[in-house]
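Batch 3, record 17
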Amino acid sequence: MWLVLTTTVELAFVTTILLILLATPLAWWLARSRRWWKEVIGAVAALPLVLPPTVIGFYVLIALGPDSPLMSMLHPFGIRTLAFTFSGLVIGSLFYSLPFAVQPLRTAFEAIGDRPLEIAATMGAKPFDRFLTVAIPMSRRGFLSAAILVFAHTIGEFGVVLMIGGNIPGKTEVLSTRIYQLVESLQFGEAHRIAALLVLFSFLALLALLLIERRIGDFKP
Amino acid sequence: MTIAIALDGKVGDRFSLQVSFEVPSHGITALLGPSGSGKTSILRALAGLERIAGSICFNGQTWQDGSTFLPSESRGIGYIFQGEGLLPHLSIAGNLDYAARRASSGPFDRTDIIRRTGIADLLGQRPSRLSGGEAQRAGIARALISQPRLLLMDEPLSGLDSDARTEMVEWLQALLGEIDIPVLYVTHDHGEAARLAVRTIHILNGRAEG
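Prediction for the assembled complex:
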């Protein structure tokens, strides 16, 4: 049980860190670009919201399999496949939780408006400086929301981890797949304990989100 | 001594701007005109905040033409915005520090500017806590601490009530009369222009009239 819990938390933690780093430039571009086709990219980034997790899992599994073009490029480095590995789980989770990072960040960046960035420009701040010193601090609620959502969503994912990870004990088994395993073997008591833990965790994550929404610790009037 | 400013171009599909004028090297030049006449667009184009399809020259230097676009942060301008003109996530002291850290050397001393703008007691406050007049004084302080060579003011008194306006006009007269850079001051108020400006340029349909 302890190993399953640490694998689950580690997966959620790594996914959250990587996804915040990857989603930030994408969300910034979606918020600031005036190109009409940005919504095509926006729709692609939001696809995991509506796609069945097994579909995402299936395609990522194919992409991480030994015969895929992606993995062929990694063969010279001694990597044949990432399917059924922790790294594979992380990659799958990045796709699965992408909209949960992009959407709050994009909304936060859009809410800044042009004025603060213009003020900073007239004080001599260059674009990247403005991004670091104005956009990021003014969007901290969005970053917190994105981090909580991605973490909670990754903790609760099932279809993707089952497809890519294969539920290998000690390696790719996480809490949600453990419940499935326990129910299959009719161990309802243990399944109840893990399920209750996830209910409590989800409640606390949502409560934190709502408190952030109420602008706790925010600078706005 | 005067400084020549020329601007010739189109703002989107809306209207064309075509102005060429000389401003005194210190003191206020008012750009006076009715709403929608293009005053703010001229100011924003000069600041590099709005791209025009055309050219802008300031004192013999090309800020923009077909192949050049000098970004706002490289033009050495100070800009006083209509309404909110401070970074909302920083205190007033934080705003002044932000400007000072990015400024080249120049004539405006931070301590002196704080004294002259009367914001010493406001330094620890957030912009959202300030009244309209206080916010504009703090905005002017942060613009001057940027060591601008041209100060652009876009209807800085528009959000104030009439008492605060009267008080601010007197205060601006005293402050801006002493500083040694050209100031372009956009307003639609003839009285304000008459009291503050050493020169008034009338703007109509994006063009300087008279």
